[in-house]
Amino acid sequence: MSSRVNHFKTIPALAKTLADASMALGKISLDKKLKHLVDIRASQLNHCAFCLDMHVKEAKMHGERELRLYHVAIWRESPLFSAKEKAALALTEALTRIGDNGVSEALYNELREHFSEVEVSELTFTIAVINAWNRLQILSQMAPGSMDSAYGLDRAELH
């Protein structure tokens, strides 16, 4: 198989801008564990192996319980997630798989029960950025785990 495009080499300024956005998201008020759940769920929905691998490892390194990581795919049925986490995961699905009706009033009202306006915006940016990364990685087809040592993800001890 021929190698695919490397966005960091072809358009480094744009790739850096997206990387900078990701770094900025690391400084928002949104709980890091919740952000990892969002990144994992969007990556599952988008079938992005590289990002899913990376975000599961990051979540584990930041103290997420393994059983909860296994349950992200079944979050609706799982008793392991709070109502707030479920609202965030529902928004992740709604914005990752945008349907004809967008985000329903019911979902928006549910979000507002658990999140401030600022937090809803932070959550929306988090979802937008992971979806952008998923699309770039799906096209480039970087191998899952190929950047572990560069990103320090080998410390997750998930092999």
TrEMBL record:
Residues 12-93 form the Carboxymuconolactone decarboxylase-like domain. It comes from the Bacteria. GO terms for molecular function: peroxiredoxin activity. PANTHER family: 4-CARBOXYMUCONOLACTONE DECARBOXYLASE FAMILY PROTEIN (AFU_ORTHOLOGUE AFUA_6G11590), CYTOPLASMIC PROTEIN. This is Carboxymuconolactone decarboxylase family protein. It comes from Citrobacter werkmanii.
